[in-house]
């Protein structure tokens, strides 16, 4: 159990707590008692301490990558490519670059790669051996989280947890939002389901996590006149994922913020229609969301992007450190420095037939930029 830093004395209820209808006691419960998080973080200095002034903002043991970024390398035929291909070779390459943490995006590879079909219990043992051989730790997997609670879905979830334990993971999750709905009733159902699954994952020694896209930080439709189907059409100003965070059990449900998509949300989702029909501007700050409950975010996707307001999302993805997201401020100002596990991701890293080595080249460049990030 990691120790947690003591928060500064403050008897005011933060704005995010007021918006979510939480009192100070409830907010402290939602942050899982962040009271001592840096005393036993392996000597990593905490943000704000004198020793942290020029410290590594991403400690070397916590530099990770989600394998979706190099999915082209995982899936290609080693018999027809001079580049690292399949899990075994790609894990070796990533270890050589310097990565120490791995997040899986499923367990499929080319049939001709060593081990063949490793999407089995036996395959999980083989993957674990390759991880251990290369000094790598598996932190999580973007797998499937049941959308309904049945005997069959719980059995499948238990089986996924068993594979996660074989691989040595501490977390199990999904790359999808808890629900794609805008409506409060659907988010309530999702929160109820995730509380059940999170407690079940904890029984396997795992933390359950969800990953966000920008729409999860848009505004919840929870008030105002009903539409023809009886659904609310306006918002009280609460964002979907913030409501989910406040209404799931902090012991069992965690979040993996995709920092790129959170910044896209900052660009796109800044105005809502209030119950009285007026338009209200409410700017979103990803870092403030993390600060409100830092221990709820054990994982991040450290995805970078270049600003381009001609694009619908306001950004274009780029290798880590090559974009405009201020990661020095994001990681430098964050409480509990050293607790979180940033996984580099770039959806657009594969170069296709024209540049088959691109994703691994970007992996090297992104690692170098992680290494240079100080604060």
From TrEMBL:
TM stretches of this protein: 27-48
Alphabetically ordered keywords of this record: Membrane, Transmembrane, Transmembrane helix
Keyword Chaperone: no
Protein's UniProt keywords contain Glycosyltransferase: no
Ranges for domain Xylose isomerase-like TIM barrel: 92-343
Listed name of the protein: Tat (Twin-arginine translocation) pathway signal sequence
Native species: Nocardioides luteus
